[in-house]
Amino acid sequence: MKKITNNCLLDDIKVSTTYCGIKKTSNNEDDLLLIEFENNTAIAGVFTQSLTSSASVNKCKINLSSSKEPIVKAILVNSGNANAFTGKLGEATVQKILNYLSKKLNCNINQIYTASTGVIGEQLDPSQIVNSLKSMIPSNTPDWFQAANAIRTTDTFPKVSKRNCNIDGVNIEIVGIAKGSGMIAPNMSTMLSFIFTNANLTSEILQKLLTSSNDKSFNSITVDSDTSTSDTVLLAATRKANHKPIKKFTDSRLNEFKKSLCELMLDLAKKIVKDGEGASKFITIKVTGAASKKSAKIIAFSIANSPLVKTAIAGEDANWGRIIMAIGKSGQKADRDKIQIYIGDELVTENGMVNTNYSELRATEHLKETNIYLTIDVGVGKSCSTVYTCDLTHRYIEINADYRS
Amino acid sequence: MKKITNNCLLDDIKVSTTYCGIKKTSNNEDDLLLIEFENNTAIAGVFTQSLTSSASVNKCKINLSSSKEPIVKAILVNSGNANAFTGKLGEATVQKILNYLSKKLNCNINQIYTASTGVIGEQLDPSQIVNSLKSMIPSNTPDWFQAANAIRTTDTFPKVSKRNCNIDGVNIEIVGIAKGSGMIAPNMSTMLSFIFTNANLTSEILQKLLTSSNDKSFNSITVDSDTSTSDTVLLAATRKANHKPIKKFTDSRLNEFKKSLCELMLDLAKKIVKDGEGASKFITIKVTGAASKKSAKIIAFSIANSPLVKTAIAGEDANWGRIIMAIGKSGQKADRDKIQIYIGDELVTENGMVNTNYSELRATEHLKETNIYLTIDVGVGKSCSTVYTCDLTHRYIEINADYRS
To answer: Are the Cβ atoms of A319 and B88 closer than 8 angstroms?
Structure first.
């Protein structure tokens, strides 16, 4: 394999940020991000499954389905207001912004993708954004940390991830930014991610790449089981890399890119969990021996979303009965007498009861660490799934109940 | 309608309680309850759907299916140990206890119903229970508060409910006891309820009565979305009331009984929510205008189980965007532009956005009360469902994380 160096292969992407007055902060932190692309940039997206999805999400979906080869000219993101559940007025707001920006950038409105994150149910003022757009000047080289910073809400740090790989011997760069602190905290948070590459790939292949990687990354994390109205992940390819065209998702020349994209998305997803509201521990839950991949994931999420499991881990309490409970309530196939639970490397259960050599001391030692590993074999099949979550602490209650948000 | 007086129509039920050493308490509080019935007492039951259900739950199910007309001679309940996930040994424990008690009471072992609540995964010592059974002396008249007290774990008060009604002009009494503080807190809690009546009803009719009332009561509450391994509700009828036999569940002479049973079970269910771990507010969530009853219930539970909705209410914050989010994530049919949300009497949303006359002040005033009413019409059909829950507070984290349980 060739040695890959970082050649700033995405310098033709223009990034600009500003404070336009939507986000209520003490020091006028950036709340508007504009990313501009040269012609011919392909795009793919995955979105929240929520039935009360935001105006921006709905418009992005229309954009993607409006053409067989959708093209992106710009991505515009504001933080501080989600423009969700804002009715026809909210849709008109998006339209006003798109009308202005499409004229300015001399493109079709279907080539502009918007995302909004923040309070649900409050009207977003389009003039604040349009006025700011008039004076925004894109930087010569994209500053991805600055970009990630502008889309933060309750996030405590900007989330950026980079990977380099090659396709057909040609250097490929992938850069992604993300925000999110609860899977949702609808007042001031939601999950957004934007990923960029110079690979020369069609939007059809991009979409397949994004969907398959998404399942193992963003769709494998949970902070509080609450699903946002605004979750958006977009993947844009400038197609500047001069490798030969790739026509099939299954082309083996894509293998390295697939691996890198998946790694990058998982890295961003893990950063969101680490920055989960009130999180003090990062928890990896691997379920093996399940009847199907879907079943393994349902069991893993049943454990990851259980407030009793999450509080036990916050309390560094090896209360493994709560894991048994969460397996049981998942409704998925499991053989009670074959279930094996590991806390770290400590085997807790065997033969339908506690393992005779189980040491609660050793299990508790592991729970004192910051990175917690729970591994559960449910003894009925060969499928597995891994999900990531954080613990449930006083700080979560403080963030979401104690302060008027 | 005749005037109904309480004639202690259940005095032929014998209740005894004792401390047998299973529950770890400072002052040797009762942890064993024995209820004895005269011959011919019919029984029905509903149980946890958990796939890792306890040894007692599994044995109760066998009892009920072992005969077309199952009879109960005794119900034996211990608190402090759930005897769940205790393997073959746990099953042998139940068997040992049943062997002793069936000889003592001169009955078939299939006529004894047991329930255990407390820590999951620890072996229950049958000798502690058998030794106590030897010396337990039933009282002449049943003290239901004493009975409810003996099955408490983290509950802060005993839960008893009584109703009187009539069937065919004959006085009928219904008494129920329950315990539960989280839907589950597997270390020291689970949901149990035992209900008694003198009605002369077959177990087949009892089962139908229990199942239909259960759906509107115990199956309509949630504290923390975690489902117990041990949930058990039993309904026993001494059949001492001398009304004419009732052969059909649809017999109109049962109407008053149905209503009273449902009221009693709902009363017990609400008591569990009021005693929910850390609860500071009792929340009634009514969903109307849904596509089906099932759909209405899924939406109501999606709201009731959302940690963000629960923390918002704990913080007396009229953050209705979180309710929109919870409707959206339920995956159920809802017409965004017809959704109406009421906080108390305050109409929050209309036409897919905030109601123009909405007063956050009035909504917040309502949230300062102890009993919170959320009413949501999703605008697609005529079905409705009501569920009950409590808020999510610091105290919940304290109970489940701060102390080694």
So the answer is: no
Per-residue confidence at B29, pLDDT binned at 50, 70, 90?
very high
Q: Which of B153, B190, B238, B288 is catalytic?
A: B190
Contact between chains at B308 and A184 (C-beta distance less than 8 A): yes
The per-residue pLDDT for B182 is 58
Q: Cβ B325–A52 below 8 Å, yes or no?
A: yes
Sole residue written with tokens 């499928």:
A383
- Positions in chain A whose pLDDT score sits under 50: 1-7, 183-189, 404-405
Q: Is A190 a catalytic residue?
A: yes
Nearest Cα of chain B lies from the Cα of A11 at a distance, in angstroms, of 38
Overall number of domains in chain B: 2
Residue A8 lies in a domain: no
Nearest Cα of chain B lies from the Cα of A100 at a distance, in angstroms, of 25
Q: Is the pLDDT of residue B129 over 70?
A: yes
Half-sphere exposure of B119 (CA within 13 A, CB side): 18
Q: What is the pTM of this model?
A: 0.80
Is A4 a domain residue? Answer: no
Contact A52 B328 (CB under 8 A): yes
CA-nearest residue of chain B to A182? Answer: B308
Domain boundary among B208, B239, B274: B274
> For position A366, what pLDDT does the model report?
97
- Min Cα separation B345/chain A (Å): 19
DSSP strand E in B137-191: where? Answer: 159-167, 170-179
Starting at the edge strand found earlier in the chain, the sheet holding B282-290 runs: B221-222, B383-390, B282-290, B371-377, B340-343, B346-347
Catalytic residue (one of A17, A86, A114, A190)? A190
d(CA B179, CA B294): 27
Q: What ipTM, to 2 d.p.?
A: 0.77
Task: Share the mean pLDDT of chain B.
Answer: 87
Candidates B228, B334, B403; nearest CB to A325 = B228
State which residue of chain A sits closest to B227, comparing Cα positions. A329
B358 near B346, Cβ under 8 Å?
yes
Q: For the residues of A197-215, what is the DSSP string, one character each?
A: E-----HHHHHHHHHHHHH
Confidence (pLDDT) at B2: 38
CA dist A205 and A219 (Å) reads 19
Domain that holds residue B237: 14-274
Given A274, A305, A338, the domain boundary residue is A274
